[in-house]
Specification:
about 210 residues, L-fuculose-1-phosphate Aldolase, globular, alpha+beta, about 35% helix, 8 strands
Length: about 210
């Protein structure tokens, strides 16, 4: 992951837009690179960017390059410092995740794939103003034992072991949010119990290639 390039981060940001998870300059993507990380620039749409526009940010908040980093760079910095299992981060204002985040409630175990994100629920981080340290603190509080959360009145955040993996998880989370939203329109979803979610979590421990 330390060999990540600006092209990798930009390609991920563009894929999020193509897939409808972000529009315009909304959201951000980053990837760990040694003691620093690369992140999308503030206020620029992916279509307007080149790989050289991706900004390198260090743990003390210094950045290099000609662009300002995303206003949410603190969240990325703090997650990389707290979670050694995070090598790339996606923050999106995707339609269904954002709609549920505006309710301010967690996503319960209505579907076994919730376990994909580390537990029996996907928590919703409390609201704080964008770009401020309080928002980073709120996100970190929602992530223990998880690789994803909703952000109240804001959107979603996921992290993974690469930019490709983080984008894939963001797509999976948005799909689950859509399914949960649609289920709520027709009734009260039947939730899986704790015993079943424990079994599923055990299976996910060895899931994939």
């Amino acid at each position: 992951m330390n060999e990540v390039s600006g092209s990798d981060v930009l390609e991920a940001a563009r894929r999020l837009e193509v897939c409808g998870l972000n529009r315009g300059a909304a959201g951000n993507v980053s990837a760990r690179r040694g003691p620093a990380f690369l992140i999308t620039p503030s206020g620029l749409e992916p279509a307007e960017c080149t790989a050289d526009d991706m900004v390198e940010v260090f743990s003390d908040g210094r950045s290099s390059g000609t662009r300002k980093p995303s206003s949410e760079w603190r969240i990325h910095r703090d997650i990389y410092a707290a979670r050694t299992d995070a090598d790339a981060i996606v923050h999106a204002h995707s339609p269904f995740a954002t709609a549920l985040a505006c309710i301010g409630e967690y996503i319960p175990p209505f579907h076994y794939m919730i376990a994909r994100f580390g537990g029996s629920t996907v928590r919703c981080a409390r609201y704080a103003t964008f770009g401020e340290q309080a928002l980073s603190d709120a996100v970190l509080d929602a992530l223990p034992g998880r690789c994803a959360c909703l952000m109240a009145n804001h959107g979603m955040l996921v992290f993974g072991r690469s930019v490709h993996h983080a984008v894939a998880l963001a797509l999976e989370l948005e799909t689950l949010c859509e399914q949960y939203w649609r289920a709520l329109q027709v009734g009260t979803p039947k939730l899986l119990d704790d015993d079943e979610m424990e079994r599923v979590l055990g299976k996910f421990a060895g899931y994939g290639q």
